[in-house]
Amino acid sequence: MSDLLSLGASGVRAYQTALDIVGENIANANVPGYARRNAVVTENPSAGGGFPLVRQTAAGSGVNVSGVARAYDAFLTGDARTASGDYARAQTRQYWLSEIQSFLNTDTQGLSGRLTSFYNAAQDIATDPTSLSARDAFLSAAGEVAAQFRGLAQSFDATRAGIKQDVDQTVDRINDLTSALSTLNGTIRRTAGGTSASASLEDERDRLLNELSSLTKIDVTTRADGTVDVRLDNSNGPMLLDQMGPKLLGAQEANGKIRLTLDPFGNSGTIPVPGSGVLAGLSDAYTQNSNSTAAIDTLAQQFVTSVNAAHRQGVDLNGVGGGDLFAASSLAATPSRTNTGQATLDMQVTDESLVFAGGYELWYDGGTSQWTLSRTDGSATVTGSGTLDLDGIHLELGGAPKGGDWFQIEGVSGAAGMRVLIENGAEVAAAAPWAADISAGNQGTGTVSVRSNPAAATIPAPVPTSFTVRMGAGSTYEIIDTADTGVPPTVLASGAYVPGAWIPVNGFDVQLSGTIAEGDSFVVAPTAAGMADNANMLRMVDTRLGNPGFEGRFSREVTRVATNLNDTKALASATLAVRDKALEARDAASGVNLDEEAADLIRFQQAYQASAKIIAAAREIFQTILDIR
């Protein structure tokens, strides 16, 4: 009779536990990371313990719940982690490439449009070389080109800082996750396996691993006790977490790329970023941003070099030789992140030759309301309140600074340092430095052309200010001083006439072409002030040409970024589909199916009721025996 009661009681206890587990599954059906639990109901052995004189009390006494099984498929879980990491990489890269493309526009307000406006303004001067309004418009267009280059440099720099900030935050989160996993490893080791408590801990472990795999590619080894070891990238990668604890991860910038370090405070060296996860997407975007920055800097340098070379070959309206139109380097003031005031700073370089190469520091003393500007090595310092002058640098200071506000002033080059050096339109060197005229008495039909050539130095000192090229007997030419009235004049240089060949003189070359008769002459003299000559401006317009030209080179970089972005969008769409399928397969194996839980609920309820009826039957039998008189 007691065995019958024990049989029923064991069933009631076992199926009550099973019902509790079903209830737990139903309650957590929509909780992310929750894996289905199953009650392991086993039959108590019906045989004795192997000792004739020892009775096995559990024998023949029904069933019991020997443990709680957690639904888990290691392969499907690992596949889901990989797919999630691939999608996270593509999604992150897509976001930052979209940011880069947003300021690489090619409309009239972008760099391509500004370059077009610059060359159109140059063409306007070539049409009317003495027009001051055309010259002023040209300088305005030049300033817009420089401002656009600087704006792009600032946008790239802001993007770089944003990506690096996300990298640092991602690395910090990875370190938090590995630290939490290490703590969880210790808790799992101390918790009995096959229990609801251990299943909950393993759920939390997998949740942390899933988040970690979305941040960077990992390889997970699960030990028999449920604890995990984690490596970066693959099974041969560096250890990120073992049974001794986590390794601290760090990130740094090197040669336009993001590199990782394990144990940043030791001597672990750098390692490449693994190939999936948010960190990989950030690394891809950082590399693209660095490449585009370098491309724009190169474009700026080539543009400045080309235009300056042309401008230096001409003379302005005052008859003065042209200098550089653009500078490709400047000074920039970077405020400290700890600044709390609203200071304004206007900086001008009055003499570049005096600027200290090591840079400067500027800080504000709230107690004295004074600014201090000093070289970074402390070798020179000035203090003042409104304006400061040091080493060819003039600062106008205003706004509402706060004590402790600080700025770093250092040289910048490339696109970031581009600026226009000329402020007066009359100083635009539109004319060629030399002009050539055909003498009225020439018998032939020959023509003459002149080009600048600073290396040409045929005539010994003293060099005349004006030259006459005269054809001699036997197809030869002679170069004489135009002011030489001697008979015959002194021949400064001579040679055989080759039609179309360039003849080096002093600071320029002369080209004679066509049919030239003996005695024909051509006068070459410096371009006079106010001369309506456009030869040098046409030379500057020619710098636009190329294969491709400057606008085309910029458009090519924009196209490169756009192509990369479109490829990334396609990849993101594909990896999203793969991720969803992988998660669906994982959840099918470990997720809660409410229909199955409903069936189990009915099954365990019926088993529970059957066990209760056994107890009721035993009670009736026992009561019947007691009622026998």
Radius of gyration: 42 Å
For the biggest sheet, the summary is: 5 strands, antiparallel
Global structural class: alpha+beta
Question: What's the pLDDT, averaged over the residues?
Answer: 89
**Spatial order of strands in the largest sheet:** 11-18-13-14-15
- Percent of sequence in beta strands: 15-25%
Number of strands: 27
Distance between the termini: 19 Å
What overall geometry do the principal axes of the alpha carbons give? elongated
**Poorly predicted regions:** none
Number of helices: 9
Portion of residues within helices: 40-55%
List the helices and strands and how they pair.
Layout: H1 2-27, E1 37-43, E2 63-70, H2 74-103, H3 111-127, H4 132-190, H5 196-215, E3 218-222, E4 228-232, E5 239-242, E6 245-246, E7 249-254, E8 257-262, E9 270-271, H6 278-311, E10 326-327, E11 329-335, E12 342-349, E13 360-365, E14 370-375, E15 381-384, E16 387-390, E17 393-400, E18 406-413, E19 419-420, E20 434-438, E21 447-457, E22 467-472, E23 476-481, E24 491-496, E25 502-504, E26 506-513, E27 521-526, H7 535-542, H8 550-590, H9 594-627
Antiparallel strand pairs: 1-2, 3-4, 4-5, 5-6, 7-8, 8-9, 10-19, 11-18, 12-17, 13-14, 13-18, 14-15, 16-17, 20-27, 21-26, 22-23, 22-27, 23-24, 25-26
